[in-house]
């Protein structure tokens, strides 16, 4: 029997990947740029389990969201508890923050995480059932500068990865006061069009009219076009907050567009919401989104602290990088590739390779090829810098000939000088 990947999942391979973005080296590059940028902005890594009590997501993400109502991988453990694979990271980070009383350790908290998320969605291009997100969460500061910093950091990460044609779409969903005014205005607007709304949006009108703005139904989209704007329903403090975020983004030359139709899919957002899009992804053109969530901590039983966060799909980032023709990474091969001729030489190569590695020099030994020619081809395939064929001549004379595979130049050395020679030419 031949096994296959479960639907909606993929493997990340060190070579010969199915899709170019499924190459381990690209993931390493992405992860290291993220870690470095996060450090410079003062964000520390947090790791939480990949599953949590289902209730955490019901409350922390919102029961009326698509994520919770349709997309969760939920199962019961042997003790009859309902658990779910995490569909996103914010709820888990907040749970952890509250559980470990981190609020007592300092007054502002800046986290990032990278890891798999799980959503039971219809697999299609750019949409998987196990995918990866970079998430950042800044807890404690209600200042608009915190919102702007989060946007700036993400923009930096994308820019350092070489992404082009990015657009920051910015909006506010106001504070509680603005939201109440705006919801009433939306209900007034949609009520006379009730028959034209999709079945789902009819329910949304009762439960959470803002969510209609997020609808992907063509009829809803048509109606949404003329719907009242949140921007004319803001309380003075929500208005000031939004203007300040815009002013700060201007001050660091981050290009953005105000898009009053962005509400984001999650229930917990307040004030600033934003998405970053690119033109090179076809249908799935959003690479990430986030916003401020000032009431979330207290609603999950924690201290009444404000927060702002963002999540971005790593698959989508890599797909854009590939679509925009970012230079393929050159594979780093071993510095030296030993090819033994015979059993005695094999032992010698084995010990030499071990010696190299103990001196932090990458090395490999040919163990499979029956012919020298195949060994040389393997060295080239691996992008080795040097190869060295070891046979009885070399063993008897205690010497080695290093051949540079690209320039074809050869260097004769006595074996005891090998390590110091290689150390000298290490880049
Ligand atoms: P969409 O409207 O595309 O379904 P979403 O609102 O569900 O997006 P978020 O929950 O905000 O997305 O997740 C943030 C980011 O995570 C998305 O912009 C995307 O890059 C990535 N993402 C979300 N779901 C998936 C998925 N099923 N497969 C791959 N990436 C995903
Ligand atoms: Mg979704």
Describe the structure.
By secondary structure, the chain is an alpha+beta fold. A hairpin with a 7-residue loop joins strand 9 (270-278) and strand 10 (286-292). The chain has helices at 24-41, 54-60, 66-70, 90-99, 144-160, 176-190, 199-207, 218-225, 236-251, 296-299, 314-323, 343-358, 372-381, 392-397, 418-425, and strands at 44-45, 51-53, 74-76, 82-85, 109-118, 130-139, 166-172, 256-258, 270-278, 286-292, 307-313, 336-340, 363-365, 386-390, 399-404, 410-414. The protein is elongated. It folds into two domains: 20-175 and 235-323, 2-Layer Sandwich (BirA Bifunctional Protein, domain 2), CATH 3.30.930.10; 336-425, 3-Layer(aba) Sandwich (Rossmann fold), CATH 3.40.50.800. Helix 1 runs antiparallel to helix 5 and helix 5 packs parallel to helix 9 (236-251). The model has no long low-confidence stretch (mean pLDDT 93). The strands form three sheets. Strands 1-5-6-11-10-9-7-8 form an eight-stranded mixed beta sheet. A five-stranded mixed beta sheet has the order 13-12-14-15-16, sandwiched between helices. The protein has a three-stranded antiparallel beta sheet with strand order 2-4-3. The structure holds adenosine-5'-triphosphate (ATP) and magnesium ion. Adenosine-5'-triphosphate binds next to strand 6, strand 10, strand 11 and helix 11.
